[in-house]
Amino acid sequence: MKFVILLFFAEFVSLSDAHLNGPSVNCFNDYKTTMICDFTSDKPLNCGGYSLDFVSELQEHFTCVFVNRERDSNHLFKCGCTVEMPEFVIADNFNANLLKEGKVLNSRNISAIDKIKPQAPEILSVTQTGDGNFNVTWKTNYSENSVFGKSLKTQLSYKKKGEADEVASGYNCTGTFCIIPGSELEPSSEYVIKARSYSTKYGTEFSDWSNEVEWITSESTERMLKIIIPIFFVLLVINICALYWCCTKLKAKWWDRIPNPSNDIKKILPGNPKVFIPKQYDPSSYHIDFPTISAAEEKSW
Ligand SMILES: *[C@@H]1O[C@H](CO)[C@@H](O)[C@H](O)[C@H]1NC(C)=O
Ligand SMILES: *[C@@H]1O[C@H](CO)[C@@H](O)[C@H](O)[C@H]1NC(C)=O
Ligand SMILES: *[C@@H]1O[C@H](CO)[C@@H](O)[C@H](O)[C@H]1NC(C)=O
Ligand SMILES: *[C@@H]1O[C@H](CO)[C@@H](O)[C@H](O)[C@H]1NC(C)=O
């Protein structure tokens, strides 16, 4: 009895070994001619000696040799390989055998259409349109006439230069250009944008991110007004002050030339003025129409 259980246990272990031996490999193709595979581990990996042998339905062999890659974003150790094949078609199936030093660790079937990761697009330009929006253009490396090329969408991610990726804004676009409304951007700021392709129709992964393109937004009219209006008021105040200064100068000059009648009378008659005063002299009953300051002012205008 003990022996049977032991035998059963040994067999179970070897069976599961056959299935689980070796790392679990992830493969993606770009729906062109390149298959890229990798596997990761939290322990340091020695990728030398690992390879993946693809066998097509026509019994052609394509060998992908693993090399150490940079640690991924989760800081896992990574082995990766790349292999070129004839152009993929939807119906392509491969039997993939993972080998270590020539020994098969495991094998599985991979269908070309299962796991597609498109090639990254390339951003061509960001230009301001007449209405203050921004036209972003890009190209993918897939024919626009192919079913796959037509199904590709582009995800744009833009942010102010220097900001973290987490705060980036996104846009999903079809075709080869997309309009970002100027109202969503801050004026006179530096922005960076990148793009990646995906196809929901083919259930693809996202491509890698494209090149980043920078652009600077222009001054807004509102901001321009905020700058111009205070300057305008300062100039206006300076003008008013200058004008006032000129007027007082002019008036003083002009006013000084008008003889002062009361002074003149005093000069002409230095003697005792009482002699000439009539008996019932009441100065308030006399109204002499001398030019007043306000009258002079009116004349000068
Ligand atoms: C892969 O598919 C072939 C037939 O298409 C089948 O004979 C084989 O057993 C499959 N291998 C695996 C590991 O599923
Ligand atoms: C954006 O640019 C593309 C390529 O130059 C052009 O075909 C498209 O008409 C432009 N779109 C707008 C709204 O200006
Ligand atoms: C575009 O695809 C071709 C294969 O069809 C490839 O040789 C070329 O390197 C690709 N270009 C870019 C920029 O990925
Ligand atoms: C764009 O599409 C992707 C995938 O369907 C989705 O995860 C993302 O939230 C979308 N982004 C926007 C801004 O709609």
Automatic annotation (TrEMBL):
PANTHER family tied to this protein: CYTOKINE RECEPTOR, CYTOKINE RECEPTOR COMMON SUBUNIT GAMMA ISOFORM X1-RELATED
Fibronectin type-III domain boundaries: 120-221
Keyword Transferase tagged: no
Gene Ontology MF terms: cytokine receptor activity
Membrane-topology annotation of the record: Single-pass type I membrane protein
GO biological process: immunoglobulin mediated immune response; production of molecular mediator involved in inflammatory response
Signal sequence region: 1-18
Pfam families: IL4Ra_N
Predominant location category: membrane
Subcellular location: Membrane
The entry's keywords: Glycoprotein, Membrane, Receptor, Signal, Transmembrane, Transmembrane helix
Protein name: Fibronectin type-III domain-containing protein
Cellular component, GO, one term: external side of plasma membrane
TM regions (residue ranges): 227-247
SUPFAM superfamilies, per the entry: Fibronectin type III (SSF49265)
